[in-house]
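Help!! Second protein's tokens look totally different from the first
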Amino acid sequence: MDRSSSAVAETQLMSGTPAWSRLSAASFWRGVTQEIAVRSRDPHLIGYSLVNQAQVRTDLGDGYGVIDLCQAALDEGDRLFPKVRVMAMQQQAHGASLTGDRTAVDHLIDAAGGLLHRVDDDLPWGNACRRTPGYLEVQRATCYGRLGLGREAASLWSQVLDAVPGTARRDRGVYLARHATAAAGAREPDQALEIARVAAEIAVETRSVRMARELAVLGRAMRPWQDAPVGRDLAEILAPVTEGYDVVGVPKPLTDEEITAALASLPGWERQGDEIARTYEIRHHAAVAAIVTIADRSRRVQHHADLDLRIDSLTARITTHDAGYVLTRADVDLAHRIDAIVAAHQALPLD
């Protein structure tokens, strides 16, 4: 079996996960997408599901896995909608950046750019990305930062940030944090500090776990100046954001006292060992819609709940898996988000 066939086979195997298993919302809906795609035999849906799985592999740092999955999609060639091909190419560029291949990054981003004029629908790209060259330059800048090309990445971020919509505040904060890290890599600590001021304000406002992790990366990049005035200023700026996170951006465990205090602000939630949980009485159709929204928000903040859907209820359980299955500030933040989402969906009409 070649590498592309292996990637398709893996997708088919993963799609066999039973829906009744207690999975995170994102994993559940990703599995549903993959199963529908494979059963449909539709190359566009299969390509999209492969790219979706490649995004997960990017987060895991598995560059070769990303490349294989995207190549499996791109093997369909012109049969794919241009948008799916663009998505596969830019994600494959992320895989190339993880393997240190700058030439492949530029080739893939440029090739994807050549297809943008053929995308003839108005469906959103997701996040702050739209059908503009800025969509791909965000990807290139991120890849350059991962490759350690600080000066080039910083220059690109200066250009693309102007194109990010004002409504995409959380994404803008993430990009600013990456810009600051690139400036640090370019040996421009003062510039990194000024950019970080704005990113930190957005992080405090949005309570984004994803942004806190990006700013933790910035903190590591600024270590050469930690004893200088600029380093001390940065530590002060980041303190409200990164408090509760370790040096690699993983949330620190809360104490029993902190957990008790947090639950006081979360009516209906209770502690169950190393999880917090709540059961909502909600109609089935509204709960399904709520799960989709929870999955989307969870993807954006990079923290997920385990969801148990029944005919007239929805139970959410949260713990921080990447901190060793303990309760952290990220769990409290996600619980507040889920409360708001379920409250909004409980009012849905029956038809």
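Here's the second one for comparison:
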Amino acid sequence: MPPPSTDDLDDLPPPQPVHYAEQSLLGALLLDPQRLDEIGPLEPSHFSNHTHGELFRAMRSAPAPDTEQHRTSPAWPNTVLDAARPHAPGLTASYLHTLIQVCPWPQHAATYARMIRADHARRSLRLHAERLAQTAGDTTLPHRAKATLQQADTLARFLDDLSGRFTPHPGSLPRTTLPPAPARDTGEEALDEERLLIATATAYPAETSQMRWLIPEDFALPLHAALWQCLTALTHHGEAVDPVTVLWEAQHRGLLAHEITPTDLLALLSTPVGSPEHWGEKVLERAMLSRAQTVAIRITAFTDDPANSPHQLITGSRRALADLNAVRSRWHQATGPATPRTARSARTPAAPRAEPPPHTAPLPVRATR
């Protein structure tokens, strides 16, 4: 086998600052094991490097040596090395000497430990954000909205736990440039749900006034959002609502110039199926899942910015979650216990074909002799 190319080694990324903090802490503890009592709560899993974590685990499990004996005997480093090697086979005695040599000040061990905890918090927060994004985008889940909100709750609890570990300080807002929000789902199923909502709301406008939990920003297609505004404006002002009046309102709002023709709009508005509330919940659910993915991307961007302190990560992430909670609040309004309504407007899990509205019912035909 040919020897590895030095060019390949040169292509390796340089170690992150936390790597040097871990080396310095371990070097300090090899020099002065009594400082294990000064570094605060620290776990092997907090280390970014597996070998470093196993070495620290061995330090915590091995009995601390007598101070005087440690000055003249290498027993402590040898004990630690023997305990760590089964779990970190690549660990060598020479690397322990390297750790001792690179430690600038053993007296700063507690500071090095705080740096390690801070970087572990950043990596853990990123993992929580990735899980939120994955859950929100997993179409195989039977109850994706519920699972997504549960993951958001887990993330919120993690932020609460972090806030108790790190002291807040002024200027805690992150200054990270945020990436754009991901594109909304404009697949045929999503657009069909929006079209059916608009058509059914036109047929049953009385129910539209009860759906204040749905806003134009929830729609994936701007045209559908504008048509929803047409409907809500007409119902708010007590105007007559039918396909023709919605068409007239759409004309006044400039929607017929380029986005849709009058014929196409009348065809869209004349095919109600199910109840407006059913389709409205579908639209709002997609909006909430999209917002969850946006929040996850934003938090991930915070964690990818090494300039952010732990408290900046906490503050920025909580603000991002507040955007999701705003949609979540409206989701609970939509899906909470139903208020007494007529039999036709009760929430149903399926979407049977709606009855034709009174103003479109066919006239009876008189029999001729």
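Reply: Different proteins will give different token patterns, so don't panic. Residues 4-9, 339-369 have pLDDT under 50 and may be disordered.
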